[in-house]
Amino acid sequence: GQQVMQIPQYQHVQEGEDFTTYCNSSTTLSNIQWYKQRPGGHPVFLIQLVKSGEVKKQKRLTFQFGEAKKNSSLHITATQTTDVGTYFCAGAFDSSYKLIFGSGTRLLVRP
Amino acid sequence: GAVVSQHPSRVICKSGTSVKIECRSLDFQATTMFWYRQFPKQSLMLMATSNEGSKATYEQGVEKDKFLINHASLTLSTLTVTSAHPEDSSFYICSASSWVWGTRGSDTQYFGPGTRLTVL
C-alpha cells in the first residue's frame, strides 16, 4: 500500500543549531503537506508543496519537494525553543483522496 | 486559516458506555471530514472519511458498528464510540476539508483540537 516514511524519529538539538526532517514515498505524490504538533496539541497545517522541485520558505523554515515528487524535507535554521514539537509530513496521491501521514519527527531543543 | 472545533476536548467514561464527539467547521463548508486516532507518541491513523449526506467510508480494520459517524450538515460531523472499552482510550482528531468526491488528489485538511478519551 501507499506509505510515507519519515526520518529521523527524534532529534535533540542545542538552541541555535539547524534541524532537518525527511520524508520519502515509494510512489509519486500529487502533493505533500507539512504539519506541526505541539506537545498535547493537535496538528497545525504549515504548508503544501505541489510542484516538482518546489522550494518554499516561511521565515526560518525551508520546505523542499523533490524533482521526482517522491521525497520532501523540512529544514529549520537556527532552532529556537518555540520550535519544539513533532513535525509530520503527509503525502497525497492522485489515486486517493487520503492523506498518508509519516511517522513524525519529534524535535527537542535545549535552551 | 480555517477553524475547526471539536467537543468535548476531554472525556472520561466507564467501560460499556457510549461517547459522542462533535466536529464543526466554523468558517467554511466542509464537504469532507476525516476522523483520525492517535495513540501516544504515534502518528495519525485515519479511521474513516465522511461526506455530508452520505455514509462514511471506513478504513480497513475499523469497525463501523463501533465507531458510528454521522455527517449531517456541511459544518458538523459526529463520531460515536459505542460500548467503549479501555483499549478505545486514545486521542481522536477530526479534520475538515473542502475536498469534493470525484476530484483528483486531496485538499488541505484543517484539524480540530482533538478529544482525549479515557475509558476506565
Description:
The complex is a heterodimer of chains A (111) and B (120). Chain A is mainly beta and 111 residues long. In chain A, 0% of the residues lie in helices and 56% in strands. Chain A has strands at residues 4-7, 10-14, 19-25, 31-37, 43-49, 55-58, 61-65, 71-76, 85-92, 99-101, 105-110. In chain A, strands 2, 4, 5, 9, 10 and 11 form a 6-stranded mixed β-sheet that branches. A 5-stranded antiparallel β-sheet of chain A has the order 1-3-8-7-6, with no helix packed on it. Chain A is globular, with a radius of gyration of 13 Å. Chain A starts with a strand and ends with a strand. Chain B has 120 residues and is an all-beta fold. The model of chain B has no long low-confidence stretch (mean pLDDT 89). Chain B contains no helices and 11 strands. In chain B, the strands form 2 sheets. In chain B, strands 2, 4, 5, 6, 9, 10 and 11 form a 7-stranded mixed β-sheet that branches. Chain B has a 4-stranded antiparallel β-sheet with strand order 1-3-8-7, with no helix packed on it. In chain B, a hairpin with a 5-residue loop joins β5 (45-51) and β6 (57-58). Classes of the chains: A mainly beta (111), B mainly beta (120). The interface between A and B is medium-sized, with 24 and 23 residues.
Give short descriptive properties of this protein.
heterodimer; A: 111 residues; mainly beta; six-stranded mixed sheet; five-stranded antiparallel sheet; globular; B: mainly beta; seven-stranded mixed sheet; 49% strand
Instruction: Give the C-alpha Rg of chain A.
Output: 13 Å
N- and C-termini, Cα separation of chain B: 37 Å
Mean pLDDT of chain B: 89
Number of strands of chain A: 11
Q: Helical element count of chain B? A: 0
Write the SSE topology:
The complex is a heterodimer of chains A (111) and B (120).
Chain A: E1 4-7, E2 10-14, E3 19-25, E4 31-37, E5 43-49, E6 55-58, E7 61-65, E8 71-76, E9 85-92, E10 99-101, E11 105-110
Chain B: E1 4-7, E2 10-13, E3 19-25, E4 32-38, E5 45-51, E6 57-58, E7 67-73, E8 76-81, E9 90-97, E10 110-111, E11 115-119
Parallel strand pairs in B: 2-11
Antiparallel strand pairs in B: 1-3, 3-8, 4-5, 4-9, 5-6, 7-8, 9-10, 9-11
